[in-house]
Amino acid sequence: MEFIRDSLSKYKSDSGTSMFVIQGDAGTGKSVILNSLFNEIQRSSKNSEDVLKGTSNYLVVNHPEMLKLYLNISKRFAYISRSSLERPTSLINKLQKEKTVADVVIVDEAHLLATSKDAFKRFYGQNHLQDLMSLAKVLVVVYDEKQALRTGCFWDEDTNNGATLKSFYNQVPEIQRGWYRLKQQFRVAAPPDVLQWIDDISVKGAIPKYPCENGNFDFRVWDDCGAMYEALRQLDDQYGQCRVLATYDFPYRLDGKDYFVTCGDNFKVRWDRYTPRSVLPWSERPDTIDEVGSVYTIQGFDLNYAGVILGRSIGYDAANDCIKLRPEMYDDHAGFTKKKNIEDAQVVQKRIIMNSLNVLLTRGVKGLYCLLYTSDAADDQSSVDLGGRRIIKKHEHNPKVRVEPVADGCDVLMLAQVTAVP
Question: How many whole angstroms separate alpha carbon 321 and alpha carbon 350?
């Protein structure tokens, strides 16, 4: 608040925007801070003795499920109106049409801001943040580059792909900017061993050591998807908000039809349905225990328990003992749309898969269940050993059985190409 008040008091029409960045990994409390901050800004705007008096302020998020959450929260906060909550494209178009400048714009999930033109969504600029910088006196930006999930909204501080937040931040005069890093994990109430396991597999791409101590956090790995789902259903009866999630490795199209995530012979559950008119976010609706959530429906939200299915785009490199990524197997074709500012598509596609994995594995407050499911065609390894535990059933065989007489009283049952049981 001090930064915002100071920036507004010193603002001049030719001084440009002031920017404060709050950076933090998933679960470090970024959105919680924004809720309190925006309510305080709006409360102060009613105070006749505050520099914020009469200011025009907005909170924007480029995520339909998160916007539902904020709209619901606004009902409980007297100072937050629905009209102050927007998608970035809507706010940009509104301010440009009115030829006005907002006083304070809070940007949640800034890593989802568009980094290229998207005419389909009525954004005709080159970058959401670039436009917002010209339309706000003060910007507060919440950011985690490890949660960028599409080429059209790709933020990366280490390559020349997409956009970098630092490049925009450095355009702001030094006295008009600030950057703070959140480090403490608040969501995943797990001991360091489990947090390290998540970081190893979803950030470093390493084969993690199996955690020695889980504490009160329920961490398990499964080789039976149906059994994992049944366990989650029972936990949902007890705690609520226990859901199955999956990487985008199972077919899905936005055409009004139902699509299913199928793992083996005992798990076939519908992908989450597109429900833009639903008041509650997907994670809060009781009926979604009968669905599998994607990275798009769960990003930004907590679950009590998350059961994560890692699909065929994530495999095992036996030669190097590490994660093997297969972008050609990833089914989110819209996420891999060609963009002019993407110089190395292969690198970006792999980063998006890793980012989606990181998002999925950091949802569970009380527990995390994992299962890796990969088709025979994608990987000829029969299992993956992570730190001494076989966490993943890689193959679901449906062998043809042929019995051939070889001698009196002795048959050979052929179970697989290289397996024979007398």
Answer: 17
Q: Answer yes or no: are the C-beta atoms of 108 and 60 closer than 8 Å.
A: yes
CA 385 to CA 391: how far, in whole Å?
A: 7
pLDDT digits (tens, 9 = 90+) for 367-391: 999 998 865 344 444 445 444 344 4
3-state secondary structure (DSSP) of residue 273: coil
Rg of the chain taking only CA atoms, in angstroms: 24
Torsion-angle region of 300 (φ positive above 0: left; ψ -120 to 50: alpha; else: beta): left
List of residues 6+ apart from 190 with CB closer than 8 A? 198, 214, 215, 217, 219, 368
- 33, amino acid identity: I
DSSP 357-381: HHHHHT-EEEEEEEEE---TTT---
Q: What share of the chain is helix, strand, coil (3-state, %, to 5)?
A: 35, 25, 40
CA 126 to chain centroid, in Å, comes to: 23
Query: What does the pLDDT read at residue 383?
Result: 47
Determine the Cα–Cα distance for residues 134 and 112; give it in Å rounded to an integer: 19
Pairwise CA distance, residues 232 & 382, whole Å: 26
Task: Identify the CA nearest to 111 among candidates 204, 24, 41.
Answer: 24
Helical H segments across 218-294, by residue range? 225-239
Distance between CA atoms of 167 and 150, rounded to whole angstroms?
A: 20
Cα 150 to Cα 337: distance, rounded to the nearest angstrom: 8
Helix (H) or strand (E) holding 322: strand 322-325
pTM, rounded to two decimals: 0.86
